[in-house]
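#onboarding

Welcome to the new folks! Below is a worked example of what a typical request in this channel looks like: someone posts a single protein sequence, and someone else replies with the predicted structure as tokens. Don't worry about understanding the tokens yet, we'll cover that in week two.

Example request:
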Amino acid sequence: MYKANTDLPKYELVIFTWGNVSGIDRESGLFVIKPSGVDYDLLTPDDMVVVDLNGNKVEGKYNPSSDTATHVELYKAFPNIGGVVHTHSSWATSWAQAGRAIPCYGTTHADYIYGEVPSARCLEGKEFEEYEKNTGLLIVHEFKKREKDVKAVPAVLCKNHGPFTWGKDGNEAVHNAVVLEECAKMAFRTELINPQVKPAPQELQDKHYYRKHGANAYY
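Example response:
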């Protein structure tokens, strides 16, 4: 998880101490996450924090990331994910702040994400009292309500907040965060060039997603 965390600034997804990566060992029910408030330039493998699925610190000299409770809820709800990433990457966060899902306008998006990247609503009222936990619960609710498959759609935007991505492990979750940022950038430019643009044809989306992820994938 140390390398996955240091990949965030490498791919220009974070600045200062923003963002975090976690990865879970399903057999033990423990996950490793970036410590809170530690600059990426100063981060070492020994700084990583081990946490259980109740959000309790098991090992580590620092406090776990302030977003730990969000990661906990995602791991509990979606047993087939093994890594979670949260960033405030500028393009994806811009869509999140606007409260807009990212449409699939082309094959780059379709190769990795099936359909639009959903935008979850902003928390309200008393939900802010357990902010990080309820952020996770909100994401879970949105995916179950929309009947979205977290494997087919490995990303979400939290309104007025930012993006979360996930994958089979921390490295794949980072990979998906990079893809999301590029798709967010291209979608913005696409709408700038053609404000009347429509999502890519469903047949094209299906072809590109399933040739890479379907039962008979060949790419």
